[in-house]
């Protein structure tokens, strides 16, 4: 049965994450132990005990989600040796794309961990430099929301589409001043609600451009391999296997909108009829249901 692996991104974290997994899996415990040695702090303790303010900081949240999902995948592989005979695509939401690339053999677990630590630090620094944020808009179509973003933006303060998740669920991102105007305009225009996201700043916009240079330097230090299964890129919503292509797309991802809905539609059109969300939560399963309700999506890792 053609299967796609999905890996969650920032926003899926919670205090207590990975608890059930490490309790039953020595493989997962080994992954977290290795992560502690690489990172220089006890990542598992942060996942299990928080505090939530610390876990939610981009520089800690991204490694936490990467390690949890990768550890879950290793346990899943141990339980289902035939898994990679069925998997035909992998995809991850923003940070989750790094897990997808590691899962597909693009770089090692340790290199991936160092990359997401560098990415998290770079994005946190860019966010700290500018008053910015993100908001989820529920119940509004993409075209109308794009128009509202244009109306709310000025020469010095912009807001734009950032995460194109699924019909009726799109995140916008930008300077706080413009974001607040856009939220008000969305409510006035009939959106069901807007929800300010608990993230450091305006991810997937030009505000993150200072992070790109730092990320490119980190990527240049890592050896990439071609992928054993295609990863569908957030940037262009098509699959890639070539190491050079993945290496070029990952920095772009920080400043480009996440085309998640288009990515899932591509995979569905290619014949995938089973999905596994690997890691914490069921956010990605929820987006799939809004696109094609009848397709099953198993969660593995909670």
Tell me what the structure shows:
With 302 residues, this protein is an alpha/beta fold. The chain has helices at 19-24, 26-39, 43-49, 52-55, 58-79, 83-86, 96-103, 109-128, 142-152, 176-188, 209-220, 243-255, 260-269, 283-291, and strands spanning 3-7, 87-92, 132-138, 159-166, 169-175, 193-196, 231-232, 239-240, 274-278, 297-300. The strands form 3 sheets. Strands 2-1-9-10 form a 4-stranded parallel β-sheet, sandwiched between helices. A 4-stranded antiparallel β-sheet has the order 4-5-3-6. Strands 7-8 form a two-stranded antiparallel ribbon. Strand 9 (274-278), helix 14 (283-291) and strand 10 (297-300) form a beta-alpha-beta unit. Helix 11 (209-220) runs antiparallel to helix 12. The two termini are 23 Å apart. The mean pLDDT is 97.
List keywords for this structure.
single chain, 302 residues, alpha/beta, four-stranded parallel β-sheet, four-stranded antiparallel β-sheet, 14 helices, 51% helix
Spatial order of the strands forming the largest sheet: 2-1-9-10
Annotation field: number of helices: 14
* SSE succession: EHHHHHHEHHEHEEHEHEEHHEHE
Distance between the termini: 23 Å
- Helix fraction bin: 40-55%
| Unreliable spans | none
Overall geometry comes to globular
Share of residues in strands: 15-25%
Q: From the helix content, strand content and strand pairing, which structural class follows?
A: alpha/beta
Mean pLDDT: 97
User: Describe the biggest sheet?
Assistant: 4 strands, parallel
